[in-house]
Amino acid sequence: MPEQAHTIERAAYLRRRKRQKRWVLLAQLGLLIGFFALWEIAAQQGWIDDFIMSSPSRIWKTLKNLYASGELFRHLGASCLETVIGFTLGTLAGTVIAILLWWSPMLSRILDPYLVVLNSLPKTALGPVFIVWMGAGPASIIAMTLAISLIVTILEVHNGFLAVDRGKLNLMKTLGASRAQTLLKLVLPANLPTFVNALKVNVGLSWVGVIMGEFLVSREGLGYLIVYGSQVFKMDLVMATVLLLLLCAAAMYQGVLFLEKALKKHLGVSA
Known about the structure:
By secondary structure, the protein is mainly alpha-helical. It is 86% helix and 0% strand. It has helices at residues 2-44, 50-53, 56-69, 71-103, 105-120, 127-134, 138-162, 166-174, 179-190, 192-216, 222-231, 235-267.
């Protein structure tokens, strides 16, 4: 009987969680719809200047025109490709360097002040340098993305490695585990949350790097559309591009969340 009561209680708890998730989703959708509805009404009623602030209807018309002209997917594809490349390279390179720093405490002590200084450096200042080195093209934009995301990834992942339980490390050492075995069997699995968090942070940082790079050099991409629209006072184009940027970043973030769930399921970790 106690077992049956526990099962009923757990089922009730799961139903409550489902209801809460539904209400949260409905509230989020309602907030979004309400925001766009209020924005449209304010523009239609003249409460705001729709030439400066634009409106959802004008943004929708701009998006349709971009789609009809074939420009939408050209600019969207260019920015997404640069972001994915920068995101992937920044995450992989940052993780590899963090592993090297964990592997060699001496190297970590040598490079630590340089990493801190580089992390505090405004990365946009390096934009002209990358342009001179690599030319005004996708390579310099990807380099800008790497400059923004790489150091953050190194510091975050390395700090996660250093935070592994000292008792477990000593146990591995007592059992005769090598440095590589300790890394593969303990340090890396224990830092799954750290890796996922680094991916989440890098989504935003990668988009920042790409957009900043496109502001400087690109002739295509979402950053280019924002700059062009602001220069010719086409605020509908600017706002439509910002909306596309938000949707792309949200989709990429959801992809990271999906990867997190898949990894937890594969490793048998409760969500």
